[in-house]
Structures are given as structure tokens and as C-alpha cells.
Amino acid sequence: MTLVFTVVTALLCLACAFTVARLLLGPDTVDRIAALDVLVIIIVAAAAVYVAIYRDGSNIPLLAAVALLGFVGSATAIRLTARRKGLR
């Protein structure tokens, strides 16, 4: 099982690196907002791996709250960006 956790952690680190690259190189504000949303999801997934490794379920409500906060934040930011561009 340790091999699975190691592989998952390595893949999360790789995904995080690609997401940070998109965050820094994104040509548009919407790309950067989407990259931040993906980064929040990666952080939640990494915390879920931590919960799975140590079998400590006390952090699960925190994971749900952070995921919800990330979703609401990115949806609000996209809506604000669309209003500033005059799309809606």
C-alpha cells in the first residue's frame, strides 16, 4: 500500500507543478482563476491522501469545506471577470 501512496503523491506533485506553470504563464485572467481552482482541488486531494495514509477521519469535514470554498470562490471570480469584460 505504501507504493500506491508514493505514486499518488508523486502524481499530485507533478500535477501541482503543471498547475503552477499554468498559473504563472496563463495568458488570460480566466486561465489563472481556473489554475487556482485546480490547485485547490490538488491540495484537497493531497489532504485526502494524508487522511487515507494515517486513517484519521477527523479532517474530512475540513476537506469538504475547503473544496466548497474553492468552488464558490472560483465561480465568483469568473463571474466578476465576465462582468468586467462586458460579457454579461
TrEMBL record:
Q: What is this protein called?
A: Multisubunit sodium/proton antiporter MrpF subunit
The record's listing under InterPro entries reads: MrpF/PhaF-like
Q: Where are the transmembrane segments?
A: 33-53, 60-82
The entry's localization annotation reads: Cell membrane
Q: Which organism is it from?
A: Pseudonocardia zijingensis
- The reply on keyword Cell membrane is yes
Kindly indicate where the leader peptide sits in this chain. none
Q: Which domain of life is it from?
A: Bacteria
Q: How does it sit in the membrane?
A: Multi-pass membrane protein
Cell membrane among the record's keywords?
yes
> Chief location of this protein?
membrane
Extract the Pfam families matched here.
Answer: MrpF_PhaF
Keyword line: Cell membrane, Membrane, Transmembrane, Transmembrane helix
